[in-house]
Structures are given as C-alpha cells and as structure tokens.
Known about the structure:
Number of strands: 0
Strand content: under 5%
Number of helices: 8
Radius of gyration: 30 Å
Bound molecules: iron/sulfur cluster
Shape: globular
Amino acid sequence: MTEDKDTKKDEQEDKPIGARFEEDQPYVMPGIRRFQFFTNVNDRALTKNLNRAAMLGIASMLAIDVGKAVVNKNPQTIYCYECRACYGTQDKCPVGIAFQAELVVSARVADYNRFLRNGGLKCIRCGNCQSFCVQYLNLPQIFGTMQLQTMEALREGKIPKSMVKKAFEKGLINQAFIDEVAEFLEMP
Ligand code: SF4
Ligand code: SF4
C-alpha cells in the first residue's frame, strides 16, 4: 500500500505543472462553473427566479413601450429600432434636422419637450429622411401626428413656456405653427 502511494507520488512529480493526470479526463473550459450557474436553472431555484423576474421585467417594459405608442396614436413608432440610420439624411433635410430618431422616440412616448428641442415643429414633412430608415417608417406621418399633438399640448398648457420660448428663439418653429406659437408666448 505504502509502495503504491510512493509510485503514484513519483509519477505525479514527473508531470509538468498544470498537466492532466488522467488522459481520459474531459477537458473543462475555465470559468465553466460560472457559465453553468447561469444555465442550469433547474438545479438552482434562485437563478430560476431571477431569470423569471428578468423575463417579466423585459416583457413589462415591452408592453409599456407598445402600449404608449398605441395610446399616443403613433403605433408605427413601435417598429423603430433606434438604430439611427436616419441620421444619414444630413443635408438632405431641407430644414437641417439632424436627429430624426429623437423625433420618433419622442413621438412614441409623447415627450413634447424632446420633440421641440430636436426641431420637431420645424419639420416640413418632405419625406427625404424616409428612404434612410431601415424600417421604411412613414416618418413624415409620424412627425405630422406628433406636431398636432404638440400644438394641442401647448394649447392645454402642458408644455413649459420657457421651453417653447427657447425653441422659438432658436428658429425651431416652422411657418405653419409660428403665428400660434408667437401668440401663445405673448399671453400673460
Ligand atoms: S420629413 Fe422632416 S425631418 Fe425628414 S427630411 Fe423632411 S423636413 Fe427633415
Ligand atoms: S432609421 Fe428608422 S428604425 Fe432606425 S432610428 Fe431612424 S426611424 Fe428608427
């Protein structure tokens, strides 16, 4: 028995550091345990629940996003990837709007301030940016709907006057809306 032990010890000492002792022992990738921790959910109740919570969170966020676009009467905005390919419009936008995706996202969530800030009320709905959209979304229609909603919100006093004033001073309002916006700004 002691002899056997000595022989094994001698064999092990001959092996270079880090070598496998058994040739038929399967190779194991470094970090595999960590990987298993996240994949073997059946054995790990906590991870399984975390997984479920994460999936539930993602599903809720998705439902909220879709719901908002429908409620805000701009359902096409759901299909925007936020990939920003539409920024390629550049000087083909006659009024110099640089961030069309910002307008789409603000239309999806009815964020009037963001829409104003990015020149949403300056858009003349020419459609030049549409061909740059990977989803070929009807951008002029999306922007037009949001313009009407923004004007409605302005009449209802939902947009801070300071924000409208800033957009007005920066020339971010087109001719179709400028008279009404000027009138709004003159109001006490
Ligand atoms: S539709 Fe509006 S944002 Fe698009 S290119 Fe024309 S003016 Fe610019
Ligand atoms: S290119 Fe189309 S899908 Fe991509 S961000 Fe612009 S509007 Fe959205």
